[in-house]
Specification:
The protein is an alpha/beta fold. The protein is built from ten helices and eight strands. Bound molecules: pyridoxal-5'-phosphate. Its cofactor is pyridoxal 5'-phosphate.
């Protein structure tokens, strides 16, 4: 059924770590199917087999594969160039649209991937609070940078990769999705900068959060107010995930994918009201 995909497996293994040219999710046992093209909700492999694509680019392809309007819009702009190292008018429109779609976002920073967005969100939280530790939930996925490898995969008491500095591991507190566990940590550790959450529940919501969990996290992080060196308390506790609609007090600063950049919060941005 998949002779060409099977036949290419040794070549992928020889060229790429784990045999995967990208995400680890591209690997599968005994071999992944090699995709040739997609259209709408379907894709076809290089052996001509047709699939209904339930993955949809890790849920990024809201309009399906190769939607005609997306193809047409991209084709139209490609001829003008695509990387100028400078702002463009469409970037402004894109940023404005993001803020319109997400009323809790008043400013946007474009970065190159979700992993960079979560890394930057953690840096912003640390910079803003002057605290160092981030609380995260077991098996929630936030990319693959050093700060999110602890707790990514079971067993949760060791990082999902070797090569992570101990100082980084020590700055991450991995908890089960249990409000009592959160309450205990907040009560006993005054060095918490933020909580990061896969707001849908782990693995794109396939492991749903307990009812009222997000609201409970928000309540606890608001209630745990300790004055700090900068005269701020946890009423401005940053949370690196957008609350599901209806959750109270959304004050997050979501970060979106786009052109990669170096950026760090300065003292000025840190003191922003
Ligand atoms: C909730 C969440 N955060 C972060 C990431 C990492 O995004 P990226 O693969 O673009 O680095 C993902 C990717 O699936 C994700 O689902």
């Amino acid at each position: 059924m998949n002779p060409r995909s099977r036949g290419l497996q040794p070549n992928f293994q020889a060229r790429f770590p784990s045999g995967s040219p990208g995400h680890d999710g591209y690997t599968s046992d005994p071999f992944p199917v090699i995709v040739a093209r997609g259209s709408g909700p379907r894709k076809w492999d290089i052996d001509g087999n047709e699939y209904v694509d339930y993955g949809m680019g890790s849920a990024a392809l809201l309009l399906g594969h190769a939607h005609p309007e997306v193809v047409s819009a991209l084709s139209a702009v490609l001829a003008d160039g695509s990387h100028f190292g400078a702002p463009t008018e469409p970037m402004l429109e894109w940023g404005e649209r993001v803020c319109t779609l997400m009323p809790c976002a008043d400013k946007v920073r474009f970065v190159g991937s979700g992993a960079e967005a979560t890394m930057l969100a953690m840096r912003v939280a640390r910079g803003y609070t002057g605290k160092e530790k981030i609380i995260r939930w077991e098996s929630h996925y936030h990319g693959w940078h050093d700060y999110v490898m602890p707790g990514n995969l079971p067993p949760f008491d060791v990082p999902a990769s070797i090569g992570i500095p101990q100082g980084t591991i020590d700055s991450i507190i991995v908890l089960p999705t249990d409000l009592t566990a959160l309450e205990n940590v907040l009560a006993n550790d005054d060095n918490i900068a933020g909580v990061i959450t896969e707001a849908s529940g782990a693995s794109y919501g396939t492991v749903p959060l307990p009812d009222g969990f997000l609201e409970g996290v928000r309540r606890l992080t608001r209630e745990t107010r300790r004055g700090d060196d900068h005269g701020r308390g946890y009423h401005r506790f940053p949370v690196g995930a957008r609350w599901r609609s209806g959750a109270p007090g959304c004050r997050t600063r979501p970060l979106y994918d786009g052109q990669n950049s170096y950026w760090g919060p300065t003292r000025r941005s840190r003191c922003r009201p």
